[in-house]
Predict the 3D structure of the following.
Amino acid sequence: MSEGDAIPEFSKTKAGEGHDVSLTNLSAFASGPGIRSGAEFAAIIAVAVVIIGGIELALRLFNVPHYIMPGPSAIAYALYDEFPLIAPHLGYTLVELVSGFSIGAIIGLVMAAVITQFPFAEKIVAPYILILVTTPMLALVPLLILRFGFGYTPRIIAVALAAGPMVMINAATGFRRVDSAKIALARSYGASTLQIFWKIRAPMALPMILVGLMIGAIFGLLTAVGAEMVGGGFGLGNRLTTYSSMIQMPQFFAVVLILSTLGILIYVLFFLIGKKWASWEA
C-alpha cells in the first residue's frame, strides 16, 4: 500500500453524539465515581457514619445476640483479630480468580473476534454459548470436583466458564457497534479485514470490552466463592462455610466485608482503565 493510499486516521466520537447511556455502555459506567468535591466526600462519609452508628445503636438497644446479627464494632474487631488466619484463604481465592478470569477472558475475546468476522462460526457456537450463559456454573462444580479433585483445577475451570461468556458477549457487541461508514471508507482505501479489525473495530469496541471484563471478573469472584463453599478446605468460601457452621457470625461478616471490598476494587480497577484508555467514549 503506497503512502497516498494509507488508511486515514478517524476522529473519535464526541460525547453525546449518537451513543445511548445504559448499563452496558461505558459512558454510564465511566460516569459513576467521577471526580467528587470535598463536600460530596464529606456527605458520603457522614451518611456512612450515620448508617453504621445507627445499626450499632439499634443492635445494642434491642440486645440482639452476636450469633444472630453482630454489630459493626464486633465485625471490625473480628476482621482485625482473624485477618492473619483469613489472609492465606484470601490469597487462595485471588489465585483462583486471577487464573480463571485470565483464561476465560482470553478465550472470550478470541471467540468474540472470530464470530464477528465469520458469521458461519457464530451460527455454530451460539447455541453452546447460550447454554454456558444460562447454566449456573456452581451446578457443575461437584462434577468438576469428581473429575479433578478438591484442588485449584475445578475452581479455576468454573471461574473461566463463568467469566468467558460475559466477556465474549460484550466484546462481540462492541465489535459490531462500529460505524459502517468508517469501515466502508477504510475498504475504499484498500484496508484488509485484519487492518479494519485492529485499526477500527478493536479501538471502538474497547468500552464494551472493558464492561465485559468487569462483569466477567465479578461473575468469576462469585463463582470462585461458591465453588469454595461446595468443596475444598481453603478459600474465602470455605471460611464462610466454616464460620457459619460454628455460628461465629462476626467472623462470617468479616469475610463478607472482604468479598465486598474485592468487588468494589474490581469495579474501581476497570473504571480507572476505562478512564485512561476509553475516556473518549464518556
